[in-house]
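From the pipeline queue, job 12 of 40. The input is one protein chain; the requested action is below.

Action: predict structure.
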Amino acid sequence: MAEDKYNLKNPAVKRILQEVKKMQSNPSDDFMSLPLKDRALFFVICMTAFLLERSLAVNFDVTSYGAAGDGVHDDTQAFKQVWRAACNDENQNPSILIPSGRSFLVRPITFQGPCKSTNIQIQLSGSIEAPEDPEAWTGCENVSWIYFTGVFGLFINGSGTINGHGQRWWNTPSRTRVNGTCTKPTAVHFNYCNGLRLNRIRLVNSSRDHIILTYSKEVTFSNIHISAPKYSRNTDGIDIFFSSQLRIQDSIIQTGDDCIAVNTGCSDIHITGISCGPGHGISIGSLGPNNTFANVEDVYVTNCYLEGTENGVRIKSWQGGSGYARSIHFENINFKNVENPIIIDQNYCNGGHSCEPQVSAVQVSNVTYKKIYGTTSSKLAINLNCSNSTACANIDMENIYITPVVPGEKIFATCNNAQGKGSSNSPPVSCLSQG
């Protein structure tokens, strides 16, 4: 048993392991001839050592697997090898180390699970760098640069950076293929990653979405920082699909698109302590494109600050969809210079799909807005643009106070087929009964 493998510092633990070594190194002793209390002690020591062997973290440094970390040489194979070693390790807490002061050039890569441990950790202290030239990209059939799938209990922690170098992609149409396989890739995609945790990492300049989460539950993102310029197209911060029991907290997101988008198949989503802007705000949707079914429920957006965003808190769905978006709560939201602070748009259209009038829509209901205040750069502060065929039901607005950036300008609210109640709101929302 290699003591130095675990970097043990606890003197008691060291003594136990040394005792086991001493007893194991003297096979001439007849175990059964030992006094009963010594045999019991030996058994306890061996069991303790076995449990320590299973529980203590084992470190896998990516540089020990051939990674140069100079930002020039391709380190993709080293990352594949270190993942294979850590994922197949029998110990309960394997940890992959990406050391500080190094830049690791990595091409599109898949980290496949399940692993033998459900507590695998990546300690990100250095930076992971994508190729800068789109022509250098190959192998991103998953439309992702870094793709985790089927990895349970993954914990990515550290002060390091994931840099997508998306500048040359931003003016490329989303569906344009490079080298026959690559469209604009998402920086990091987590798929079927139950128990995922991200903490303190930084993601910058993805060519498209920075993080996509799909088919996962019991997930926590905390203290992360995502940034891309305001003009960078489609660079959403976090996009979520078919996931539940998710908490996103205490993070800064500055991008050219939605800071966070909660999409179909999501429930029990808690978004709190987010600083958003620039970008397109915090969105539910878009839902129901191409006449599809959508379902979103139990979403809580609280204690968030949005500055200089195109939208504030938004629910958006396409005409012709079906399903529901319900039990959605926005509370303690502060705006500064936001163009469209509160918006429900059931006639959403970005030009990518048919926008002809249709007779069905995703049902929006049981939406609450409470204690929302700040400034808007437009005259339309509240816009409840619901479907002519399917009304927005049970909208509840309380203590909304939005003022113009330019003092003295008049701002207003507008409604189309929205029903509910409101009280203590400025500007007043005429379609909501005074509760």
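Job complete. Residues 1-7 have pLDDT under 50 and may be disordered.
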